[in-house]
Request: fold
Amino acid sequence: MSTEAKASKYWNPRFETAGREEIRELQLRKLKGLVKWAYGNSPLWQEKFEGAGIKPEDIRTLDDLRLIPFLTRDELTQTQNVNPPFGKILSVPPQKAVRYHQTSGSSGKMPLKILDGWKDWEWVSEMWCYGMYAFGVRPHDIVYIAYGYGNFIGFWGAHYAAEKIGALTIPSGGLTSEDRIKKIIDIGATVLVCTPTYAIRLGQVAAEMGIDLKSQSKIRLLIHAGEPGANVPSTKRMLTEIWGAKVGDFPGMSETGGSTSYECDAQCGGIHIIEDHYIQEVIDSEGRALGYEEKGELVLTSFGRATIPIIRYRTGDLVERVPYNTCSCGRTFDLYRGGVLGRADDMKIIRGVNIFPSAVENIVRKFDGIVEFQIVLFKLNGIDQVKVQVELKDNMDLQSQQKIIRNLSQELYDANRLKFIVEQTPAGTLPKFELKAKRLKDLRDQ
Amino acid sequence: MEGSKTMEQKVLDVYEILKELCLVKENPSVSSNARRALASVWQIVNNLGLEFEQIYEYE
Reply:
């Protein structure tokens, strides 16, 4: 009698369930290899090491990681400005690359140009596989990628990961939202991949078309990345109600290429760090290491793409690390509670109060009648003010509209102890986003 | 005997064979497809913690 091996629920059971000590040993082995590679092949890293007075052989333990200077976005931008197009960070001749991408430019900074060789590009999709498989994507799924497929790396990795898992994968570049909705239903797609903002937008367009996505589509999983949203509780709830699907958060960044962490199907309220492919640190504003349950800035060292070695890269993302056994899934990868909590540079100070756009979103998204919103900071008689502009659903009576405005204003005040001006705008006036939303306008310097 | 090899040893054998095929000059369909296959097998080798190296010289 033969017994078939049962498919694992982990993409890479070898290390997703390894002992913590074994993971650390692997990380050290990879770190030594990466450091030797970066020093020997990337002129920028050689300069940084020599500037810090260290050589690769000085990295003997994981604690020695702190000897390596941080890498920042400004350094990457500067080196590409001074030594165009790819800067002195590049560790291989450009001819070795088979893929070109650039960052989205949503931060307002000059886009970074990124090259990948074959191994790097396969690794990018491999990181997505960790997450998509953990969330439940399987070969029988039909995965719909709602994204423009341009220079921005976006969901290219998710596309190839879905194919690698064995799912039927449907690209949808160049289509309108209406066309995408029709195709999602016609083809029987079971997984939707897009930004959370766009999943909300598709919900709004579907409603205008008279389509109830919850009952008429077969979408059972929403895979989100590119911006906070899937980790904002109210937004997650809203998306679950629109689509009748589980909503997952899969942060990543163009600089590393792949996902850096993922939400598993246990949905414990956190995201697992891919610890066999990254060393991830959390630091305070002085650069000191923080421990579990302390909020700080995420710093990444990536063992994947090596064309642009990413070692101790200061991401500007705020996270709070918790131990692996916070989740019941059996993985031994630690987590970030609540996902990426915000960006250090997203935080605004209004009359001494720290305001995070994602926290405002969490309150705004509690109100089903709000279609879209925007946060505007401005000065009135020299004093900072914060206004939340909201666009409400069309068919609302005046009393319901006023109730939303009143209640939203009260909830924002209660949460922040700061008066927010809440202003209703006419339908269709606020921008709608297909990719990352830009919902904050800071006009205080104007 | 082939049948007695572990999964890990089989992966490493394929990995080394693909490296050789990447260097075949007289047939681009061999070397190009081997390069893609090597990139995939690198993921297996890396995921199992068998080897961690850069392979740009084969790309």
User: Anything to note?
Assistant: The mean pLDDT of chain B is 94. Chain B has one domain: 2-58.
